[in-house]
Structures are given as structure tokens and as C-alpha cells.
């Protein structure tokens, strides 16, 4: 089902995202239990994270460091004097019956993220960044007979990043989420693996008449485990809510989930009023004071962020905005590209190879950039061989595949495969004369103004040289010799 042009013009989409990011610490936020993903169920637990009576939390300073780092990278105002609160609710995966979080005094507030939308830069406001402990994970049986709970994730430190309702389309939501992920990875705050739950996203979406100041009735969408699913789920909600409003109906406030099988959103539960979490200050933790020295140390440690790097690639390397966006989306890819350039490759040529051959191979093999079988230095060496004319671009691509398969460098493989081009003009001159002598019709056609006839002559020389003749040199010699015949 698709909306009509009049329907899409009638209503404006308003989206706000709540992004949960698990922090990259070795131990949990209030105890010494490990945070590694994939451990056997209920093995990374202790009396503290299981909420046993008489236990007390001890704050993990590393988690606070990463939370401050995230808030600074997201351009937030830092609350240097803040506190923790108890958020009370009852659910099987919350063993204490409450979650230690931050309510009215989060670590960071009033920040923003900038994204590029249709060639223009747009700022998405951030309401708050707060630090809290994660809950466990409930696994419901398919037949509905029982639920199993794994408490390994209980107490893993995470931050919640709440955006302003500044997002105006599903595509913008995806771009915003991709920007958050890039910043978190650049700053080594989180690995952001959505498939492992270390980056999770809930969306609030509503529609309102174009030009209206008041927001419409919103729904919350959960269960989105990829950037594509975030965009697809929101597109489904736009269509669903548009149809309801266009027919004179009212959108119901509810929580919905995205069903990947049907590619639709499905109602989970009504949400007619906000939960009363009965927040109150956490009595077992002292207030958190972030002094100037601590904050300044965090600020000084920040790397060049994705958007800054993207802009630098455009100005310093003269790359198209598209190339710069692809190369800087992932920190490891940007580092690899810069290493190729540092090894002597032309930036645009390096960009083409990294975006084409390198990422194409890695994606097909489901590998990370750090697992590339071709190092940046060896890729730069291959680019030099092509640029020098020793091999053609087509041959270069064949050599790259062989480099991935064998681990050998370009010069070695070029020699082994007998690929080195003949670029010596004196060696090619005889072939040019022979091609001219044996193909009088092509010569006549070319001299008569049919420039395509040159290709037939080049083809004869490439055949005679078994593909080793340098096409550029062959073209040059042929044109010079034929002009002399006019």
C-alpha cells in the first residue's frame, strides 16, 4: 500500500528516537561481573547485580568516563553536579524491582547531532544523555508456555540518548541513528553491534497537519534491530497513520513492534497514560561531582569526529561528498583509507579502490576492515603498479583478488601471473606497423573519419601481444602513425 501525493502533502511526520548504547567496559556498572556477550546464561552474575538483600552498588568510574565522553561528543551541556535515581517498575528481567538510572539531573543535556540530508546539513537536538544500568533479557517460548530469563546483561552500563522531535522522515531517522553509531564507535564508547543488543532504538512517531504547531497522537515502535528496519518500520507507521487520519479516524496511543516477516508494525499493548516510575534519589550512591580537571581531560581525549573528518576529506583530499561520507561512516574504514593515502596513493584513486574492491570483498566475506587480507600498504603498492602502466586497471582487479586469496603482494603476483604490460614504445612500434599492414580496411576507415576503426587496430595488437601491450601507449603510437599517413 502506498499513500497518494495529496496524502503525503497533507500531514507532516514527527519522529523522536530513544537510543540505548551499552558502554564498552570490562565490568558492570555497580559490580565486578564481566560484560562479555555470548557467555552461558546467568554466569556473569553476582549478589549485587542480582539485587540480593544487603548488597551495595559501587560505581564504575570507567562507565562514567565513557558517559561523559559521549555527552561531550554529542555537544551536550555537562551537569558537573548530578545524581542517580531509582526508577521503580516490576518485570521478570529486573531482579531488584527497580533500575538505577538518572531522572532530573542527567550527565548531559541540550546537545545536538548534525546530519546531511539531500546535500544540506540539518541539526537534530538531543534532550538528554543519562547513565543507567541495563536490565536482563527475557526469552519467551514460541508456544507461549513459559519464559526464560538471562541476567547476564543485568547491570551492564549503558547510556540513553533522547532526541528532540526534530526528525521529519524515516530516512532522517536512519541517518541520525547512523550518525550516533559512528560517533560512539569513533570515541570507543561502544561497539554498537545491533545484532548483540549493544545499540538499541525505540521510536516515537506522530503525524500532524502541515503547518500545525501541536504534535499529533504518537505511537512507540520497538523491536528494530537494524538501520534498515528502523527506516522500514517508520515508513509503515507513516502509511498506517496517514490512512487513519485521511479517513477521519484517530490514532491510538500504543506501543507497537516491527514484524520483519510481514514488514509491518503490530500492536503490542495500549499506552493510554505514562508509567509512574516513582523516581527518587538513589540512597546508596553519593552525588556525582565532575570537576573541571576531569571534564577537561575527557574533552582533550576526543578524536576527530565523523562529520569533521568528512568535511576534511572534501577540502583536503578533494573527494566528492559521497565518497567522504562512505569512507568516514566507519572509523576503521577511515583509518584504512588514510593509511593507503599515507603510503603514497592518490586520494581519489585510493577512495575508488577502498569503496569498490576492498569493501566489496569484505562485505561478501562478512569481514571487518581490520580483517582485510590486503593491508593498506599493499593496496597502495597495487595502485602504484596500475598508475605506472605496468598492468591495466582490469588486471589490477584480478591481482587484488589474487592478493586476497594468497596473501602475496602485487609485484610478486604480477610476475607469477605474467601480467606485466609492454609499455616500451620501440617494442610496440613493430606491432603497430604489422597491424596497419594486415588491416588495410580498418586503416582506410579511420583515415576516412571513422574513429571507431581505431579500436579494431588496437584489438589486433592486444591479441598479438596476448593482452600484455599497454593500451594507452598503443593508442598513442597508432594515432601518431596514422596521422603521418594522411
Automatic annotation (TrEMBL):
Q: Which UniProt keywords apply?
A: ATP-binding, Ligase, Nucleotide-binding, Protein biosynthesis
The GO terms this record gives for MF are: asparaginyl-tRNA synthase (glutamine-hydrolyzing) activity; glutaminyl-tRNA synthase (glutamine-hydrolyzing) activity
| Family annotation (SMART domains) | GatB_Yqey
The reaction(s) this protein catalyses: L-glutamyl-tRNA(Gln) + L-glutamine + ATP + H2O = L-glutaminyl-tRNA(Gln) + L-glutamate + ADP + phosphate + H(+); L-aspartyl-tRNA(Asn) + L-glutamine + ATP + H2O = L-asparaginyl-tRNA(Asn) + L-glutamate + ADP + phosphate + 2 H(+)
Q: What is its EC number?
A: 6.3.5.-
Task: Give a short account of what the protein does.
Answer: Allows the formation of correctly charged Asn-tRNA(Asn) or Gln-tRNA(Gln) through the transamidation of misacylated Asp-tRNA(Asn) or Glu-tRNA(Gln) in organisms which lack either or both of asparaginyl-tRNA or glutaminyl-tRNA synthetases. The reaction takes place in the presence of glutamine and ATP through an activated phospho-Asp-tRNA(Asn) or phospho-Glu-tRNA(Gln).
Family annotation (NCBIfam families): gatB (TIGR00133), PRK05477.1-2 (NF004012), PRK05477.1-4 (NF004014)
HAMAP family reported for this sequence:
GatB
Q: What is this protein called?
A: Aspartyl/glutamyl-tRNA(Asn/Gln) amidotransferase subunit B
Per the UniProt record, the source organism is Alicyclobacillus cycloheptanicus
Amino acid at each position: 500500500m502506498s499513500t497518494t501525493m495529496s496524502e503525503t502533502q497533507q500531514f507532516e511526520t514527527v519522529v523522536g528516537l530513544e537510543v540505548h548504547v551499552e558502554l564498552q567496559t570490562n565490568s558492570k556498572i555497580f559490580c565486578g561481573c564481566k560484560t562479555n556477550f555470548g557467555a552461558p546464561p546467568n554466569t556473569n552474575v553476582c549478589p549485587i547485580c542480582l539485587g540480593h538483600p544487603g548488597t551495595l552498588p559501587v560505581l564504575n568510574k570507567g562507565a562514567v568516563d565513557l558517559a561523559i565522553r559521549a555527552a561531550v561528543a554529542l555537544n551536550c551541556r555537562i551537569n558537573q553536579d548530578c545524581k542517580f535515581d531509582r526508577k521503580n517498575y516490576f518485570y521478570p528481567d529486573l531482579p531488584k524491582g527497580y533500575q538505577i538510572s538518572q531522572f532530573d539531573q542527567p550527565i548531559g543535556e541540550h546537545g545536538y547531532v548534525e546530519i546531511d540530508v539531500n546535500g544540506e546539513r540539518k541539526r537534530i537536538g538531543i534532550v538528554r544523555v543519562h547513565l543507567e544500568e541495563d536490565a536482563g533479557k527475557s526469552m519467551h517460548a514460541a508456544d507461549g508456555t513459559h519464559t526464560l530469563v538471562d541476567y547476564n546483561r543485568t547491570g551492564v552500563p549503558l547510556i540513553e540518548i533522547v532526541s528532540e522531535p526534530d526528525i521529519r522522515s524515516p530516512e532522517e531517522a536512519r541517518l541520525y541513528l547512523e550518525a550516533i553509531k559512528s560517533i560512539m564507535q569513533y570515541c570507543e564508547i561502544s561497539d554498537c553491534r545491533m545484532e548483540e543488543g549493544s545499540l538499541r532504538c525505540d521510536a516515537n512517531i506522530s503525524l500532524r497537519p502541515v503547518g500545525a504547531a501541536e504534535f499529533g497522537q504518537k505511537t512507540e515502535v520497538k523491536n528494530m534491530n537494524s538501520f534498515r528496519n528502523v527506516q522500514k518500520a517508520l515508513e509503515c507507521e507513516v502509511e498506517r497513520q496517514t490512512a487513519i487520519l485521511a479517513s477521519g479516524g484517530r490514532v491510538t496511543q500504543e506501543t507497537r513492534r516491527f514484524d520483519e516477516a510481514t514488514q509491518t508494525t503490530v500492536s503490542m499493548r495500549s499506552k493510554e497514560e505514562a508509567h509512574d516510575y516513582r523516581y527518587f534519589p538513589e540512597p546508596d550512591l553519593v552525588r556525582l561531582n565532575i570537576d573541571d580537571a576531569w571534564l577537561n581531560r575527557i574533552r582533550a581525549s576526543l578524536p576527530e569526529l565523523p562529520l569533521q573528518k568528512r568535511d576534511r576529506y572534501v577540502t583536503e583530499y578533494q573527494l566528492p561528498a559521497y565518497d567522504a561520507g562512505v569512507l568516514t561512516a566507519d572509523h576503521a574504514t577511515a583509518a584504512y583509507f588514510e593509511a593507503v593515502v599515507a603510503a603514497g596513493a592518490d586520494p581519489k584513486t585510493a577512495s575508488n579502490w577502498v569503496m569498490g574492491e576492498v569493501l566489496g570483498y569484505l562485505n561478501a566475506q562478512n569481514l571487518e576492515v581490520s580483517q582485510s587480507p590486503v593491508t593498506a600498504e599493499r593496496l597502495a603498492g597495487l595502485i602504484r603498479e596500475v598508475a605506472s602502466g605496468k598492468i591495466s586497471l582490469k588486471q589490477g582487479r584480478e591481482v587484488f583478488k589474487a592478493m586476497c586469496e594468497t596473501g602475496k603482494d602485487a609485484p610478486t603476483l604480477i610476475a607469477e601471473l605474467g601480467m606485466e604490460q609492454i609499455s616500451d614504445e620501440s617494442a610496440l612500434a613493430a606491432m603497430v606497423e604489422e597491424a596497419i599492414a594486415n588491416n588495410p580496411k580498418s586503416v582506410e576507415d579511420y583515415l576516412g573519419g571513422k574513429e571507431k576503426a581505431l579500436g579494431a587496430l588496437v584489438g589486433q595488437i592486444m591479441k598479438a601481444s596476448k593482452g600484455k601491450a599497454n593500451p594507452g601507449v598503443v593508442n598513442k603510437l597508432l594515432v601518431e602513425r596514422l596521422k603521418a599517413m594522411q
